[in-house]
C-alpha cells in the first residue's frame, strides 16, 4: 500500500495491507520481510543513513526499525490511524495521523 526507494536506489521498502513490510532490491527481489503492525501499513521511510527505516499503520503505531534484522522500537503512537511518516537527519521521526496530530519523536539509539 506504500513504498519508498533508498537514497542510492538500491533498495525498496514496501508496506502491505496485512501489516508487513518487505525489503526488496532494485530488481524487486525479496531480501527480507518483517511483521510489525496489526493492520495495513500506510507509510514507510528510510533513515538518512540508509540502513534503518520507519513505518506507520492503521493500528496507530509508528515504528522505527534498526534494519532488516533488528526488532522494531515503538517511537510514538496516534489515537487512530497513522497516515504518513518521515525520518530526519537528526534522528527524529515525524508522523501525521487521522487524529489530526503531528507527532515528532526521537528514535532511541540502537
Descriptive report:
The strands form three sheets. The chain has a four-stranded antiparallel beta sheet, with no helix packed on it. It has 110 residues and is mainly β. The model has no long low-confidence stretch (mean pLDDT 92). The protein contains no helices and eleven strands.
Write the SSE topology.
Layout: E1 2-5, E2 11-15, E3 20-25, E4 30-35, E5 41-46, E6 53-57, E7 61-65, E8 73-77, E9 82-87, E10 92-97, E11 102-106
Antiparallel strand pairs: 1-2, 2-3, 3-4, 5-6, 6-7, 7-8, 9-10, 10-11
User: What is the helix/strand order?
Assistant: EEEEEEEEEEE
The tally of beta strands, per DSSP, is: 11
- Range of helix content: under 10%
As a percent range, the share of strand residues is over 45%
Average pLDDT level: 92
What low-confidence regions span 5 or more consecutive residues with pLDDT below 50? none
The main sheet orders its strands as 1-2-3-4
Query: What is the makeup of the main sheet?
Result: 4 strands, antiparallel
Which structural class matches the secondary elements? mainly beta
Keywords, please?
110 residues; mainly beta; 4-stranded antiparallel β-sheet; 11 strands; globular
Short summary:
This protein is an all-beta fold and 110 residues long.
